[in-house]
Amino acid sequence: MNVNILYGRSGLKVDIPDDTQVDVIRKHQMPLVKEPAASVSNAFNNPIGCPSLAELASRANSACILLCDVTRPVPNALFIDPLIQTLVENGIDSDQITVLIATGLHRPNENEELAEVVGSQNVFHNFNVVNHFATIEEDHVELGETTRETVIKIDRRFVQADLKIATGLVEPHFMAGYSGGRKVITPGIAHADTIRRLHSAHILEDPATRSCNLENNPLHAEQLEVLDMLRQQTNSEIYAINTVIDEYRRLGLFNFGEIEQSHLEAVAFAHKYTSVDISRKYQNILTSAGGYPLDQTYYQTVKGMVTPLEIAEKEANLIVASECAEGIGSDSFRSAQVNLIAQGKERFLEDLKRKSLADIDEWESEMQVRAQSVARVQLYAPSLTLGDQSLTGVELIDSIEDTIRENLASSRDKHLAIIPEGPYVIPNFIN
Questions:
Q1: pTM for the whole thing?
Q2: Under a CB-based contact definition with an 8 Å cutoff, are residues 62 and 96 in contact?
Q3: Largest separation between any pair of C-alpha atoms in the chain
Q4: pLDDT at residue 189 in the model
Q5: Can you list the residues of the chain whose pLDDT is less than 70?
Q6: How far apart are CA 394 and CA 402, in angstroms?
Q7: Whole-angstrom Cα distance, residue 358 to residue 41?
Q8: Res 17: pLDDT
């Protein structure tokens, strides 16, 4: 049998031996928005927990709109033009509107890539579209400390805008529970020191810091505290556009409103389709890193390793397919991987636990340790150079089909679980 999994832009067809007992784990079928443009208009006119977008714009002299960077397939083209048109028509001057790309500590998006992210040539060419740079001190305003003693610094262009709107995709996230909403602000437009504190081991090693979980999740709690700080110090509310899509990037939900209420509504919707109850564990699993744009680096590929862990038997064979067209990732992540390989998993993790601020991007190496503590990770990423392959710290394979046959031949469990969508669907083990 053939199974198509997300891989790059075009996907990857995997030929599974006919005698294999295959369980394909997909999202539950999601109802789709029949008229997306009408859904956008309705959401702006009938938002959640706040006045209409037009009324909000009429009260403001300036606006800052946050867009996720290229690593997130947010359907910005659907809403960015009507959003900005509404702001202008209701009194905000064009030169007082900033579109800020929430890069966190990722690389900036530039030129054609930036235009692709924005999704509108009109907005790209005629409005102020800028990247967030987490390491530029003067670009940030310090808001104070959270109860966990995280110093919060946020991009001043967002802090100082009268109308603050975050936009994003609500999907499972292996640390924050779900992406979107408050996460587009923190870490999206936070200072590097804030991001490093929020990604330190004292937060990430908490068992509640995991996919699909907001309850007692310390990272989520920190992000909510940032919202409270913003409200108190700017005497203004924060709003959000939330989208949910299916595995074919089709729209399942679009809403707009007060950031916490609208995000929770989107989370509740997404959870029904992205969290899938599974009644058994597996010795053999095949998954993906989510396809383009998520699987363009090995850094992002780690998310695909963590997603299936709840249904993985101890020492399971976990095959992850990722295009990795852009290589290993940042220089910081490269350094973290060098340290991980040189120190070994146990010492590397112990060193992390002693730090108050994580080194940039080493949190992804920490998540790799989490995966390797459960499973034998086997990576199919033929685009990686030999030098980058040596930095993964996992087993590299040349053929998914051959590896499946070898794994099944040596396993007591002859079942194969396949998760074609990778980290966008979360298998939840139910006893």
A1: 0.91
A2: yes
A3: 68
A4: 98
A5: none
A6: 17
A7: 42
A8: 87
| 3-class DSSP state of 410 | coil
Q: What is the pLDDT of residue 42?
A: 98
Say whether 116 sits in a helix, a strand or coil: helix
Q: Does residue 187 have a cis peptide bond before it, meaning omega lies within 30 degrees of 0?
A: yes
Owner of token pair 């959401």: 43
pLDDT in the model for residue 19? 84
Would you tell me how many other CB atoms lie within 10 Å of the CB of residue 208? 15
Tokens of 355: 């730090």
Burial class (CB within 10 angstroms; exposed 0-12, middle 13-18, buried 19+) of 125: exposed
Which element (helix H / strand E) includes 261? helix 259-274
Percent of the chain with pLDDT over 90: 95
Burial class from Cβ neighbours inside 10 Å (0-12, 13-18, 19+) for residue 176 reads buried
Closest to 102 (Cα-Cα) out of 149, 57, 148, 139: 139
**Could you tell me the sign of the dihedral formed by the alpha carbons of 192, 307, 355, 207, in that order?**
positive
**294, exposed or middle or buried, with CB in 10 Å at 0-12, 13-18, 19+?**
buried
**Residue 94 CB neighbours (<10 A):** 11
Distance (Å, rounded) from C-alpha 84 to C-alpha 123? 8
Distance (Å, whole) CA 49 – CA 258? 5
What pLDDT is recorded for position 18? 84
**pLDDT value for 77:** 97
Pairing of strands 177-178, 172-173: antiparallel
- pLDDT tens column, 88-144: 999 999 999 999 999 999 999 999 999 999 999 999 999 999 999 999 999 999 999
Beta bridge partner(s), residue 166:
66, 240
Dig out the tokens for 401 from the structure. 């089909």
